[in-house]
Amino acid sequence: MKTTSKTIVFITGAFVGASCWDQWSIFFEARGYKTYAPAWPHKDAPACTLRQRHPDTAIARQRLADLTNYYDVIVRQLLEKPILIGHSMGGLITQLLVQRGLAEAGVAIHSLQPQGVMTFKFSFYKAGWGPLGFFTSTKKSYLMSFTEWQYAFTNGMSYEEQKTAYYDLLTPESKLVVRDAITNAAKVDFTTPHAPLLFLAGGKDNFIPASLNYSNFKKYQDAGSVADYKEFENANHFVLGQPGWEEKADYILNWIKA
């Protein structure tokens, strides 16, 4: 597998702003790629500004199907089929767009699971219970506390690193968009041919355990399509900004080129 596309679209996950890709854009553009990192609808503002708007009814109304269609429109306007690189919820959207035939290749980094892929690991439910917002109003956005952020995203990092990441990137989120991962909006047909897919997982990820990513990867059944899996033992869910992120970017670059 060798891709010819020189266009990359980064697809942001939930709870953070699109600036989480800033270093990745610099990395790939220095190596000859044109990159795009579109903000989610209603989240095209600095994280601190978005937090000041919380609770935000516009963000609270966000749904997975609308987000997938939003990125669909962006990708179709490009001059060539891009390489899609998504993190967490963005990894799920990457899989959905690959299924639509819109990518030359897709990379799902610590991807949220499609419908029907499950895990029984306790950390997954502990990290996700608050954001799901059961027994609370879905008309109000959800804002992760710093303690939740430390457990779900930045475990294993220093306090100062955790705090800086929280204030730089954390945004309010829709409870509905998180719940949509168990609905038909997150449905993938694992039997059909697809563009090459790479799954990256983290051994220290409490939010999306590596075992869940591996189960997701193993669901793809078309023998004529490329699906690859790589686990980085020390990566947490904040993998995009965690010290050592360059190792993951390098691995993706080599996979794209090789």
Folded structure, characterized:
- The mean pLDDT is 97.
- Helices cover 38% and strands 12% of the residues.
- By secondary structure, the chain is α/β, with parallel strands linked by helices.
- It starts with 6 loop residues before the first strand and ends with a helix.
- It has eleven helices and six strands.
- It has helices at 22-29, 47-52, 57-60, 64-76, 89-99, 122-132, 146-152, 159-169, 175-179, 210-219, 245-257, and strands at residues 7-11, 34-36, 83-87, 105-109, 197-202, 227-232.
The overall strand count is 6
H/E element sequence: EHEHHHEHEHHHHEHEH
The end-to-end span amounts to 7 Å
- So how many helices? 11
Structural class: alpha/beta
Query: In angstroms, what is the radius of gyration?
Result: 17 Å
Q: Spatial order of the strands in the main sheet?
A: 2-1-3-4-5-6
- Round the mean pLDDT to the nearest integer and report it: 97
Poorly predicted tracts of residues: none
Biggest pleated-sheet summary: 6 strands, parallel
Report helical residue fraction. 25-40%
Topology:
Layout: E1 7-11, H1 22-29, E2 34-36, H2 47-52, H3 57-60, H4 64-76, E3 83-87, H5 89-99, E4 105-109, H6 122-132, H7 146-152, H8 159-169, H9 175-179, E5 197-202, H10 210-219, E6 227-232, H11 245-257
Parallel strand pairs: 1-2, 1-3, 3-4, 4-5, 5-6
